[in-house]
Amino acid sequence: MAMPFEARYRVYWHHTDGAGIAHFSRILAIVEQAEEDFYASKGLLHVHGRLPRREVYASFLYPLRRGDEVLVRIWADEVRRRAVRYRFEILNLTAGRKAAEGHVVAVCVDSEGGELKAVECPQEFVEAWKEA
Amino acid sequence: MAMPFEARYRVYWHHTDGAGIAHFSRILAIVEQAEEDFYASKGLLHVHGRLPRREVYASFLYPLRRGDEVLVRIWADEVRRRAVRYRFEILNLTAGRKAAEGHVVAVCVDSEGGELKAVECPQEFVEAWKEA
Amino acid sequence: MAMPFEARYRVYWHHTDGAGIAHFSRILAIVEQAEEDFYASKGLLHVHGRLPRREVYASFLYPLRRGDEVLVRIWADEVRRRAVRYRFEILNLTAGRKAAEGHVVAVCVDSEGGELKAVECPQEFVEAWKEA
Amino acid sequence: MAMPFEARYRVYWHHTDGAGIAHFSRILAIVEQAEEDFYASKGLLHVHGRLPRREVYASFLYPLRRGDEVLVRIWADEVRRRAVRYRFEILNLTAGRKAAEGHVVAVCVDSEGGELKAVECPQEFVEAWKEA
Hints:
Four copies of one chain form a homotetramer. The first copy, chain A, is of the alpha+beta class. Chain A has one domain (5-130): Hotdog Thioesterase (Thiol Ester Dehydrase, Chain A). Chain A is 20% helix and 41% strand. Chain A is built from two helices and seven strands, in the order βαββββββα. In chain A, strands 1-3-4-5-2 form a five-stranded antiparallel beta sheet. In chain A, strands 6-7 form a two-stranded antiparallel ribbon. In chain A, β3 and β4 form a beta hairpin. Chain A binds chain B through residues 18-19, 21, 23-26, 28-29, 32, 49-50, 52-60, 63, 65, 111, 114, 116, and chain B through 18-19, 21, 23-26, 28-29, 32, 49-50, 52-60, 63, 65, 111, 114, 116. Chains A, B, C, D: Pfam families: 4HBT_2. Chains A, B, C, D: GO terms for molecular function: fatty acyl-CoA hydrolase activity. Chains A, B, C, D: Belongs to the 4-hydroxybenzoyl-CoA thioesterase family.
């Protein structure tokens, strides 16, 4: 039975915008941190540089403020040969509220002459996601 | 008949990541720039600070590289009393390709005691979007 | 005898630029994270939002790459009534090299009518820095 | 007689932090935009990706707020065979105040086996800076 990968982060000042809450674009960067920490935990961090996002969706439910502790949870939604679709949720542990949820589709690519070309993902990458 | 709002930007080095292409989170920040320039063109820039994103969706179709000229086009998809849903597309003018498309739902809020509370959007804001 | 405050961070993909190394502006944001974690350790995180930088200097000695573990060390250089000047160094623990060093001058301010006005720093803030 | 290169930018929401002013790290990214636009104006944009910063100094004099128009002015301070030191100033045109000033040392490098090695800068790069 697959288990979501979880990682904890703190919200810093440089994440906030003029409304005093974390800017949505930086919340999405935090989701990516969790994805990287998942790969790092599997010895697959090198794969991440060839994984451009094909699709990103996020629903923001509750603000993150500077100093808040967050838990990011990610798990595979669909693992294909050339792409993975994973879901995420962000819990604002400080406020005790779900802050955001959504999904990401990342594609395995090779760059040939500057063009990004979808290729088959490494087998260990596919296996790692199937367990998450 | 409504017309999309258009704005042009250049992709800079600080937008890129280790793959040599603009990071998805910074592409989304460029979409927000177009939204702000739309408000600025209507004298409504002050409203933007009370418009947290409720939902963001993006599909990335073609990379943006440093130096590329981009055209961002935004137009209202659904204008409600307390929120607007707008669609965007990003054209990579340098490559002659559509780079991304998606939508954003932004909610009009007031902050009371730190909580964000959805409120009715200013009338001129609603009008501006109905024309876009 | 004062002791530097130390905090550890990981370099993530969104820190990198097209050269595959952390962008200087994001390295400086990591220094600020250490400053915030120092305040948090002293119960003074709320002060940080009224501490605009007056001066920042950094010398970059060795690159930070995605996945690298870094140690940021900060210590007071000069503690004045209305400002603190602290020094920092960043060690790339993964490479075993000093990555950067420099200093920051941050000023205690109050905002009146939108203008930032230098004011005396809170006493506990001054004390905390004198110990670091 | 050399002339500073000038470029104009607007401050956007994603530049601001919780204090409602542009975050210092993003102000520095705007300085880099001016450097890139200078290279672009000389047909030298490709050089920029091999120009890591060796040193950055900034003094912040007046805040930049969302919507402010800024003028960035850069000019060579010292042009060496393997590095350039340029000075910058940022004028907040909206407020009619100087917002920041400082300098940047950028080094021409080649990457060999992942190490950055200082090399001689391209001749046209040296010439371009000597005129700025």
